[in-house]
Structures are given as structure tokens and as C-alpha cells.
Write a structure and sequence with these properties.
The complex is a heterotrimer of chains A (543), B (219) and C (249). A 6-stranded parallel sheet of chain B has the order 1-12-7-4-2-3, sandwiched between helices. By secondary structure, chain B is an alpha/beta fold. Chain B is built from 5 helices and 12 strands. By secondary structure, chain C is α/β, with parallel strands linked by helices. Chain C folds into 2 domains: 3-124, Glutathione S-transferase Yfyf (Class Pi), Chain A, domain 2 (Up-down Bundle); 137-243, 3-Layer(aba) Sandwich (Rossmann fold). Chain C contains 13 helices and 7 strands. In chain C, helix 12 (216-228) links the parallel strand 6 and strand 7. The chains are: A alpha/beta (543), B alpha/beta (219), C alpha/beta (249). The interface between A and B is large, with 109 and 79 residues. Strand 9 (310-315) of chain A pairs antiparallel with strand 9 (182-185) of chain B. The structure holds iron/sulfur cluster.
Chain lengths: 543, 219, 249
Amino acid sequence: MTAPDRELQPLAPQPLAPPEPGARGRAGRPFEPIPTYAGTPPFPRAARAALADTRLRANLQRATATIRAKRARAVAERDDWEALRLAGAAIKNEVLHDLPALLVQLERAVTDAGGTVHWARDAAEANAIVTRIVREHGATEVVKVKSMATEEIELNEALAEAGIAAWETDLAELIVQLGHDLPSHILVPAIHRNRAEIREIFRREMALAGRPAPDDLSDEPRELAEAARLHLREKFLRARVAVSGANFAIAETGTIAVVESEGNGRMCLTLPEVLITVMGIEKLLPRWQDLEVFLQLLPRSATAERMNPYTSMWTGVTPGDGPQAFHLVLLDNGRSDVLSDPVGRQALRCIRCSACLNVCPVYERVGGRAYGSVYPGPIGAILTPQLRGIVRHPVDAQTASLPYASSLCGACFEVCPVRIDIPGVLVHLRAQVVRQHPMGPHVPEPDELVLGVASWVMERPRRLSIAERAAGLAGRVVARRGGRIGALRGPWPVSAWFGERDLPAPARESFRAWWRRVGRGGAGSTPSGQERSRQGRAPEDAP
Amino acid sequence: MNGPVSRHPGDARAEILERLRAALADRPPVPDVPRAYRRAPEHGVDVVALFASQVADYRATVHRTDPGGVARVISDVLEARGARRVVVPAGMPDAWLRDARVERLTDDPPLASATLDGADAVVTGCALAIAETGTIVLDGGPGQGRRALSLVPDVHLCVVEAGRIVGTVPEAIAALRPVRPLTWISGPSATSDIELNRVEGVHGPRTLHVVIVEETPGA
Amino acid sequence: MRVALFVACYNDLLYPQVGRAVVRLLRRLGQPVEFPPGQTCCGQMHFNTGYREACVPLVQGFVRVFAGYDAVVTPSSSCASMVRHYHATVAREAADAGTDPSLPARVAEVAPRVYELSEFLVDVLGVTDVGARFPHTVAFHPTCHSRRLLGVGDRPERLLAAVDGLTLVDMPHAETCCGFGGTFAVKNADTSVAMGLDKVADVLASGAEVLTASDTSCLMHIGGLLSRRGAPVRVMHMAEILAGPEDGG
Ligand code: SF4
């Protein structure tokens, strides 16, 4: 077992730091260097750094509190919410369990409708396909609709290498891109930024990427949105190639659906001559009819709306309307590994709504970047290790720390529109981590030692009884008056607990010992006078 | 998650399908989908009134009129907006624009994107509308035009005949055919990207007027 | 009806008064209860940390000790949820590995009869007013495992509301996790403490004299933070309130 909390790796270079002067916007490359998650330390360390950032915590707390309340109201409007969730989960299970056949069906339908389908085993292959198509059309820039798949494969970086500028057009993605930043939320990648920070980024960076922000730009959200509208419009009007993701792809008809709010998606999907859509192979739905479930589940779960402002659906190429060349890139990149784990595969049901992030008490406090992946929060904690191949081989310490980045409170499962048992998958993956670092001849890690001793003790009640007496003695040696153990120094996990928390001293008489002495006797049994007075000032009593 | 560079450039399709079949070696059953959710509107609901209130809830402006009043409402809205150059898709009933004194931009030959960007407004019909969600759906049919027409101008005026309003999303899906490109519109363009507060107006039309036409208009 | 008490290992050692309170309460309600001395630990800490093989002997021990009882009552909703949800998983894996082919059947016999205290009182004994008196303002922390995994609903609040003299106060963000999370509390101590301190702020904002819950583990965490800060709030397991003082007064 790795003990990621004690890794002595240096903290990642702060992605928030502004780049070297002159490093941006040259040679047709919009921004350089583009930050990545590489080098993120294991979760406990990354979390510690994030927790120290009080502004980040305040931004996140406000944003998640807002969306949580709104989602609850939007969901409460539907008396058939649970029926929709059950249908959603079943449809996605159908997709996963019948994936090869459905992909072939989708391929045929898209091809019949005038599109071209490509298959990519991994990120490099997908990036090469997109780069080749862009080059074939003689373009040096693309406009992009927000897409997790292209973030996962780091397409923008690959395009920049090839001298192709990729302009993010979603407002939050624009904020992240202009801020030389990393996304921290699936749906609202700039959730960690407040309006004042956004204003600063726009004023500083827009001019370097195109149309500058107005001189008198305030931090009113309406004005910030207007600045983005003006900045991006020239890019929409001149772009010849667009890159998008897909929310849903209908195997039966070859139809692709993109769900959005701002209209940047419609711009990208409609105005350019060439459209390239990169989608994970699990984004399928079997039938056209199935959209009736997901177009109800997704908007309410994601932005807490009855319906998002815009949804675009297209099937191949429509003569005289929109792009006249359509390429669909089907991406594996670890998904077939995820599918091979009968427990873990349910993570592929995810429709990227972010509801689990918004309710997660861990995410709310540490933010998205601590997870070291484009997929943060509860879904990231179960998806990232699986995409990185945990089912096949041992993973690095950062990846191994992700399944432990949860208190297992279960709030995520409660809101997940496709009923992914995230806590169940987390403990399943923890077992995989342990199995890959089995208790063996190596020097045991502290938690392994502690739990190893604990299970040896617990296997026999007699051992437990002896251990309790020993603990009772030891505890009272270190206990302060009132039966509490206060600040204690020592090795992990002693240091980890006692840094901020007291603990009651082990009781003079365990329950077991009490029962043996008087308990079975009857209702009147009480502990000795001395014990009772200790209990009178119960260990958890305030001083 | 950047996997290893492909070992051989060969057949990615065959390899992925093979991986997937191997991953499903446990042969998990393909489940039946339980569809116990509601398909029809709740009993006794007036879908036209519901549609009007849901659209208004998303800060679109709703007008209710009878067939004889459509032209008047349209010309009033365009005038109030100061719209002079108005995009008019093919197949729109002539009567709708009878009263409007504006320059009509028709899409034959297709309008350049820059011209669309210079237009003040667009008037369209719709394929259908959904009451529960306050959504209008365009499918490129008569009076709707290609997708760019209803996207680039800053004001969108959409005429919804009451007979086109269905109650629920399942009813809409059943009535639509995806061979045509579909655009579902629920209120004006909006974003929640700044502190998760909804702000109307980013890239799509920032103003949406919905004109509901029925024989006996409600309130 | 033969009823066994599963006291939970950490209560046994750190909070014996909770076990004594359950015994006192059930006896007052006329329900005899036994403490099978062979019991140790439900294995949750091992299971949730990933040490699944280590759970097998604990699950075997659990079914051996509690077989034959009509009901097993425990003052830990967290342990109850481990038994009801995950003992079957451990058993299935042990059977698949050939270690103990009949373990799933034995678990299926015992696990459904394990009740968290409020479930046992309300559903099995059919009481909500247990005849207790506790003249204090009390905030109730609905622990994640009781509410989400076990689904105890509002049973604890109904029991508390029926206590004579007790004023149940609302606590902001009551449903939010306190950050204990078993080994999470030490493996991710910083995050755990940050969550706990927000909970402490909510407890203080509620103005309650006493914070109660159906899990001592969460109370150990919140109480440890309160105590370190010298906050004037007592934490007590729900059983202690329902049972009344030890001397019977
Ligand atoms: S796991 Fe569920 S709740 Fe989380 S993003 Fe995916 S679909 Fe939404």
C-alpha cells in the first residue's frame, strides 16, 4: 500500500503562475507553455496546498452552494425523477453491455448520412487524426466547443505543436485558456475564478489573442459575457474548421447531440465548413427515443435548468446547411480497460453532468486541480485511475491516492442521474490499490501496519480483550484531566489525528469487561463510583 | 491518460472492437429499459399556458395573439427593437410580415455570415414547441431556414402556432425525425460560467421573442 | 425474541457508556438483550481502506457469533451499513476465491437481521416515545451512513422529538458530511479537519448545548475538534439521551 500522504515529491509548479513574458502568442500558437496536470502530487498533498488558498475555497463554496440549491429545486419539480434515473442507468448499461455492435451500427449510420468515421486507440492516434484533417483543409486555426474528450487527449497542445491555434469558445474555457490555467470543474472549468479575477484576465490577455477587452470593462457578469461575445465573434465568422465533443450519439440514426448554453456550440457546429467531433466510445445511446430520458436528466443535473438554452442535433451532412464535411473520431484511450472491470465499468455510464462534484464536500473544499486530472471530483476519483489502467497494472502514487480522496459520504450517488455507485466503486478501487501493493516482504506502510495489527487483534475476542486493557492503561498515561488525550506528537497516524483533534482516553473498563462483571446481571448495573464520575464528565465533554 | 503511442498503425477499428469484446468476456446481460417516467403532461394541464409561462421564466418575451394579430405583433416588436434589416427564411407565410416596414434579407442566394452578422433580427416559425420545458425546436422546415439564420442575428422572433405545442420531451422526441438538423432553444443565450449565476446573452441571440398564435388567445 | 447487542469495537474500548446505555434503554423497554462475548469488529475500516482479505475472518466471526439471534441491534449505523451492504461482497469474494464457499449463505441469514438502534426501536419494538427526559437543546447530526447507506430516514429525529424536555434545534448544512470517513480522517487529515471545522461552525451556529448522532465515530471526530477548541458543546450518542442517566435518576 502506498501512503501517498507521506510522498516526498515536490509540489507541482503552480499552474496559476503567469508564463514568462514573451512566451505567449507567438508563431500562430495561442499560448505557450500550456499547463498540464503532470507533476500534481498525490491527493493529500495537493489538497493541503489547495486548502491553504482561502480565496479558492471561498469561490468554490459560493459557487457550489448556489448550484446545489438550484439543482435540488429543479429535480424536485419532477415527480418521476427516480424513474428517469432508473431508465438512464439501464440505457447506459445496455450501451456498455452491447458496445461493439452499437459502435458498428453508429459507424454505418454516420457514414450513410455523409460523415466519415475514424477510430483512435489512444490520445496520440486521435490527435494525429484531427491534425491531419485540419491540415488537409489548409487551416491554421480551429474553433472549439467545450469537450472533455479533447481535454483528456490534450488536443490543444498537440495542435499547437503542429502550428495550429485552437480557440476555446466556451466562456469558462476561454477564461481558463486566457488565464494560462487548468480547468477545475467538468462543466464550469473556471469555477475557481471569481468575477474580479475574470475581469483582470480579460483585460490583460484578450488583446494578445485577438480583439481586446473594452477599456472600461467592469466585473459585472453581463459585461464580462459581452466582452467574450465581441472577442470571439470574429473568430466564429472566419473559422473554417471546428472541433467539438458529443454529449450523445444515437447508434440507430447516426445523430450527434451537443448540449450547451451560450450559443458558442451552435456557432462552431453551424458556421465552419468542416466539423470534427471527438467522442469517447461510451457516449452512445442505442435509440433516438432514448434522448427523451437524457434530455430530461442532463440539464436538471448539470445547470439546474428544465432545459439548457441550446441543444444541437445533426446527422452526417445536410446539403446547404452547416458544415459540408463531418468527421467523427471514436476514442478508446483506456475505456476498453474500464469496461473490462465488471464493478468499475459503471463509471462509463457518466454523462459528465458535474452534479457529483457540486455536492461533494471534498471537492467543495479542495477544488478540481488537486485531483490531477481533467476529471475531478467523485467521478474523477473513480474514472481517472481506471483510464490509467489500474485494472491491468500498478499505478503511480498520485493515481493510487485518488480512490482515497473521499469520505465515502454517498452524496454523489444520491444525485448521479445515471445512478453510478461511486462510493462502491471507490472501495472497489481501494482494494485494487492494496492488491497491487500487497502486504509482503517489503517494508510495510503505516496504515498497513495499523490495520494489520488491528485485524490480528480483531480475529480473536481474547486478543481484543487484552488489547483493550493495554490500551486503557496506555491511554490514561497520556490523558489529561477530564479523560481526554490532547495534542500528541508521534508517527502517522497519531500525528494526523492529534494535529487538530482530541480523543477520549480509552475507558478504564471496556464495555466487554463491564458486561463480564455486572452487565448480564440486570438493569440496575452501573459502573464503579470512580468510573461513573469519569463518565459524568464524559470524555467528549467540553472543559 | 495519454496511452502509449499505438504499437502498429494497422487497424484501429478492429483492435478497439476486439478489446471491447474481450472486456465483455463476462457477458453482462443487456437489460430491458424500464420506462416508468411520465410521457404525457400532467392531467388537466393547459399546455399553451404552461408553455407561455415556462418560456417567460427563461426571460424570453412572450406574446399571445390570434391569427389575425400576428403581423401587428411582429411589426410592433421589430419597431420597438429598432430592427431595420430582418432575415426572412424561405417558406414563411407572407401574412406574418405584412405590417413590418423593414428591409427583408432572404437567403437565396445564401447570405454571407458577415451579412447575417449585420442583420438586426430574424423572424422564424418552428417545427414544434415543448410546454414543460419552454422549448422551441427548429428543424429547417418552411419558415425556419438553415441553422445559421436563427443564430447570428441578435434578436430572434419565433412564431409558435398553438397546435405545434406538445406537452413533454417524450412527446417531442416522438414527433421529431432526426434526419434534419435540429436546434432546441429554451430562452435566450445564457451562461452560468461566472460564479454559477445565470446571465442572459452570450453568442446566440440575446433577445428572444416568442409569439404564440391561437384562435382564442389566453392571458 | 432473542436480541443481541453488537456494540462495535471502538465503542467497546472508547465509549463503553454507549453500550451500557443501549442495554439500559432496552431493558427499560422490557426487551432483554445479550452481549455475545465472541464479537469483535465488523471489518468496515479494513474494507473501506481496501484490505478485503483481512475482512474475511471478521465476517466469518460476525456470522458465527450472531447466528441464531432474531435481531442484532447496534448503536453504530456505520457498522450496520457495513454489515447490511458489504458483508455480502466480502462473502462473495471469499466464495469465489474458494476460501469459504458457504459464507454468502451464512451472511444472507444474519445480515438482514442487523438493525441500527433507531430502526430497532421504531420498526421492531414499535416505539418512538421511550419515556426519556433530557431538558436540553440538542442538535442532531444525521450521519452519512445512517442517512444515505442505511436509509434510517427521520427515525432518530422522531425518537428525539418525543423525549421530554428536549428541544431539537436546526443545524445549518445538517446533511453535509462531517469529514470523519474512517481512515480518511488520517489519510486525508487536512481535508478531514477542514470539513470538520465547517461542521463545528454549524454546530456552534445552532446554539445547541448537546450534539448527538447515531454514530460515535463521527462524534469522536467532531467532538475532538470541539474539545481542542474548548467549545462549550457536549457530544453524546443518541442512546445516552434515550436511556437517561446511568444511576437511573
Ligand atoms: S458520475 Fe454521475 S453525477 Fe458525476 S458527472 Fe457523471 S453522471 Fe454526473
